[in-house]
């Protein structure tokens, strides 16, 4: 019997650092966020750390470019493939960010 040796790990990262101005400037927002999971394992934490790193870099780039982000949430999914020897490696992590951006006043 062949056993599927592919595992998927999903986490949600929610930015909670909007202090009312979004990313209007680099000092206008906090870097705080929540990882939504009731129990963590190392694989989920790896996926969450990649998602959080991407989020923080994205928010920074938006603040520097005068793009005001007001909401950010990501549903990241990592795929781990077990090896025949019992080890494993991630083959991919896919991020699915949903971002709300404030339109400029004209």
Strand residues, percent: 35-45%
Q: What is the rounded Rg?
A: 17 Å
Give the number of DSSP strands: 5
What's the SSE pattern? EEHEEE
Terminal Cα span: 65 Å
Query: What oligomeric state do these chains adopt?
Result: single chain
On the 0 to 100 scale, the average pLDDT is 93
Task: Describe what you observe in this structure.
With 106 residues, the protein is of the alpha+beta class. The chain has a domain at 9-81. It is built from 1 helix and 5 strands; from the N terminus they run E-E-H-E-E-E. Strands 1, 2, 3, 4 and 5 form a 5-stranded antiparallel sheet that branches. A hairpin with a 5-residue loop joins strand 3 and strand 4 (88-94). It is elongated, with a radius of gyration of 17 Å.
List keywords for this structure.
elongated; alpha+beta; 22% helix; 106 residues; five-stranded antiparallel sheet; 1 helix; 38% strand
Question: Helix and strand layout, with pairings?
Answer:
Elements: E1 6-15, E2 33-36, H1 42-64, E3 69-82, E4 88-94, E5 97-101
